[in-house]
Fold this sequence. Notes:
The complex is a heterodimer of chains A (about 425) and B (about 500).
Chain A: H1 2-5, H2 34-46, E1 53-54, H3 67-73, H4 76-79, H5 91-108, E2 112-113, H6 120-135, E3 139-143, H7 148-158, E4 164-168, E5 184-191, H8 202-210, E6 214-219, H9 230-233, E7 237-241, E8 257-261, E9 274-278, E10 284-288, H10 295-298, H11 311-348, E11 354-355, E12 364-368, H12 373-381, E13 385-386, E14 389-390, E15 401-405, H13 412-425
Parallel strand pairs in A: 1-13, 3-4, 3-5, 5-6, 6-7
Antiparallel strand pairs in A: 2-8, 7-8, 9-10, 11-12, 12-15, 14-15
Chain B: H1 25-29, H2 49-60, H3 83-89, H4 92-95, H5 112-129, E1 133-135, H6 141-159, E2 165-169, H7 175-182, E3 186-190, E4 192-193, E5 196-197, H8 199-205, E6 210-215, H9 228-237, E7 241-246, E8 265-268, E9 288-290, E10 302-305, E11 311-314, H10 331-367, E12 372-373, E13 383-386, H11 388-394, H12 398-407, E14 414-415, E15 424-427, H13 435-454, H14 456-461, H15 473-478
Parallel strand pairs in B: 2-3, 2-6, 6-7, 7-8
Antiparallel strand pairs in B: 1-9, 4-5, 8-9, 10-11, 12-13, 13-15, 14-15
Helix pairs in contact in B: 3-10, 5-10, 6-7, 10-13
Amino acid sequence: MLAALGQGSVAELFEVIPERLRARAWDLPPGMSEPEVGQYLAKLAGLNAQDLVCFLGGGFYDHHIPAAVDALISRGEFYTAYTPYQAEMSQGTLQSIFEYQSAICRLTGLDAANASMYDGGTAIYEAAMMAVRKTKRKKLIVCTSVSPIYRIMLKSYTVNLHLELVEADLSDPSALQGLLDQDTAGLILQNPDFFGVLHDYAPHFEAVHAVKGLGILGCNPIALAVAKTPVEMGADIAVGEGQPLGLPLSFGGPYLGFMAAAEGLLRTMPGRIVGRAHDKEGRTGYCLTLQTREQHIRREKATSNICSNEALCALAAVIFLGLMGKQGLVELAELNMTQAAYARERLGAIPGVEAVDQGPWFNEFRVRLPIDARVAVSRMIDKGIAAGFPLGRYYPDQANNLLVAVTEKRSKEEIGYLAEGLEAVL
Amino acid sequence: MKTIFEKSRPGRRAASLPCSRVDERFCQLSQLPPELRREKPAELPEVAEIDLVRHYTLLSRMNFGVDVGTYPLGSCTMKYNPKFTEWAARLPGFAGLHPLLPQLRRGGLLAQGALRVVYELEQLLKQITGMDAFTMQPLAGAHGELTGIMLMAAYHKDKGNQKSIVLVPDSAHGTNPASAAIAGYQVVTVPSKDGVMDPVAFKEKLNDEVAGVMMTNPNTLGLFNPHIAEITEAAHRADAIMYYDGANLNAIMGYAKPADLGFDIVHLNLHKTFGTPHGGGGPGAGPVGVVEKLMDYLPISRVEMRADGTLFLNYDHPNSIGYVAPFYGNFGVCLKAFAYILALGGEGLKEVSEDAVLAANYLRVKLGDKWEVAFNRPCMHEVVFSAEDKAADYGVSALDVAKALIDEGFHPPTVYFPLVVKESLMIEPTETEALENLDAFIAAMGRIADKAAGDPEALHAAPITTPVGRLDEVAAARHPVLKEPEDQGA
């Protein structure tokens, strides 16, 4: 190859880099063989507490992932492809995204979904910015029962954008009075809320519509199988974390942000969108569409800077939803609720432990302990149980409150160990 | 092909759910009151597992990935993705790890292996780029750009600087101006001269209002900017931050480090340079590195080491910009990149850049007989050709060339980008394509050039070997159908 170039060495090809700017040090370890890397990484994996019985949630859940999900997303034709710019040879990716968009629309009841956002938090931020763009207003109202993690993200992203971010406890819609005004771009709520409680936010969204602001609802996609839908409540945009749909916890990612919106918001939506199309012979196919919203066409005027999103995670999600199916997803949601109801009763029977909320709940709930929840959880780790998330970390006035998540994977026996263990450590 | 919804048949199912085994009354207890329940179930597909598995297997066969063939998509670095990295990401000790675990009291000790991955990857990326610290939080390249601009803004705010402009060369990826704009900056474009950002034009645009400069070097034409030191020095005199878009780092590993070139912030696309698969449009990962003056602003948490050698999450950085992701980034992707770097080692990574640059130059010379090179001088990891002459002489556009390549069994190059070259064909062969694959690509391009002269109509008709021909994208955008209608498969 060098001969074809008329070059004596590969190094000559790098002569364009000025000598004084060349790398002086390159102190990286020598390479390793596959078995050596494998042994090292297996050792590191073993340093993580992988056998804990998991009652941690907070928006990220230990659900069962059917084997078919990984088998299908592991096909090299899917996972070693790039963004489907060349539609004719990317029909697999494109059609699966179209099916994913369809499934998200059917879950949320809304008109149009995009191909995915990075995660639930960035999806909320993008939804908030849609509201700001659409209304040309500056004020965002966020309920304190929206995930505190996402609220920190929203603050981080908007700090330089001259927006007004108002946080308030809005469980009672009358709390909105005095907050809603002619500068309100959007109202952001979450269902089930961070404490696992399900709501009907119809009055909230009616109120925000009265001042011509937009309603944004963060959702748990499995709860959507049974809960009142965003569209039934009057939300304009639904977003959420898609991790429960067949994605491993994987220490925080890769996850999947989903987003759906009412038709009128389509052209302000961020991200990739796949549409149905036809060729000259009338054959049906799929392509990226409405691209004039996007950064590669519109550059600094784009609706978002997002390029790579979470396509393979969206594929996993639509496969998961297909495997669960119309009836299975409802059963899965109900099973989660049943196991959680049992756990609530068992924990509530422990002297000194009481439920904080009235419910109804999805698969997560908070209990008030007689001691600091951090201490209780720490003691429970020694019993092999991750008992839940101590809320004091994000809500300083809730130091004794513990957030407990119960999925379909938690058996009656495991819930029993949780209750017995907790009683013993208090 | 029919959608999964069209294949739905009432009553079919694949779901296999555990039996609750708790008392029946808990089912009753957990029932929702009607006002909180959805009216009717979501019309998800009703299919058996075999229906679903065949459906997505057939769809996969209508897709083209690096595992299928040569994928010289410029600026996307579609190199081979080693299989052992997939294995690593699926180790139960990593895949099953809840991200809130280390946020429990003494919880860091429960996740030392995962924290070790993040920490060691940070050390390796620091060595590769010369930067002083990294955050793994950004979830993709463009997300890294946004994070970088937020860091830039935090720096200027802290110093009391009033700056509102970000300079971007005309050859930049679209994400650069988009990232700067959504972070609240005004974007000013700097023209190129002879394929690279012109230092004279740059200095004309540079003033006290400029907060930062976003550059890709080598740029999207595959050209290394020899004036880079002059540019970064001038920017620093104006207290502007130099941002390095790491999309093209694949070209210079072991030869140059962004920090030595004068850059202050860098994002890396782990799904490009470091061998993690692109997934058909993600997930990627876009870690961001900074020099010391910007370290205080990095997102929290940061993984740090205690005196006893254990690792912990440090949230105590009061000047931090906050959270850009819920946890520690796309950990699974970072883990694959970590495995890739460990396997290749320092010499291997240097060889990656050498082979990538060699392959691109081989194509530049060998394709030069029949195709017009935009800038005919040694390139780095990619080379841009122009089909402008074919368009003028035979009416054959870059798009026609791309579609003809599909029929030849190749993924086409990036077309119509960078914007500074008309009818551009941006080719990045990567280091993992063997010589015979490069020669086969050259031969295919030769046949297409001959066909352009002899039978241009045939090229307009391409592709003919795919499940669908060219789609009417204009009609699709004018009357968008973005989901299966509800009455389908209901």
